[in-house]
Amino acid sequence: MRVVVQRVLQAEVRVENEVVGAIEAGLVCFVGAEQGDSDEDARFLAKKIVDLRIFSDENGKMSKSVVDVAGALLLVSQFTLFGDVSRGNRPSFTRAMAPEEARTFFDRFVALVRERGRPVETGRFAADMRVHVMNDGPVTILLDSRAR
Questions:
Q1: Cα(54)–Cα(77) distance, rounded to whole angstroms?
Q2: Considering the entire predicted model, what is its pTM?
Q3: What is the pLDDT of residues 39-84, one digit of tens each?
Q4: CA–CA gap between residue 7 and residue 27 (Å, rounded)
């Protein structure tokens, strides 16, 4: 499982020009599920994201989490995080979890993040989404559950 985490001042997801998820200050997380990912992977990254200390304290040091700053999270499913271009220029997505399994897995991940007590918004699974992000920093962190 991979998650690209971006610290944001605000963000929103639109599907067919309708806002389906929006947050003010917090984290946007692009979430990709890989074949073989388990509930343990989802639990690990749900905790890691909410506890990630990438917000600045009063001294300008990154020492605060999304909980500490009362931020929100916007979770967006993105199978392309497992695009493989090692054999040319057209990505292969064979490592990505199959769509129906990935939908269930993503829903479970969203529930696990919500259990951590911060507001959570989402995009729409498998939709053609427009994600508008106002990065803060910018700060972008790549997390991979298999790299722990």
A1: 22
A2: 0.96
A3: 999 999 999 999 999 999 999 999 999 999 999 999 999 999 999 9
A4: 5
Q: How far is CA 82 from CA 56, 117, 119, in A?
A: 31, 29, 27
CA-closest candidate to residue 4, choices 147, 132, 142? 142
pLDDT digits (tens, 9 = 90+) for 92-126: 999 999 999 999 999 999 999 999 999 999 999 99
Instruction: Give the active site residues.
Output: 78-80
What is the distance in angstroms between the CA of the first residue and the CA of the last residue of the chain?
Answer: 11
CB atoms under 10 Å from CB of 38, counted, come to 11
- CA distances for 22 relative to 27, 96, 120, 122, 130, angstroms: 11, 26, 9, 8, 12
Is the domain covering 2-87+94-147 a CATH 3.40.980.10 domain?
no
Least Cα distance to 27 among 65, 72, 82, 94 occurs for: 72
Using alpha carbons, select from 107, 143, 109 the residue that is nearest to residue 126. 107
| Under 8 Å between Cβ of 5 and 140 | yes
Domain ranges of the chain: 2-87+94-147
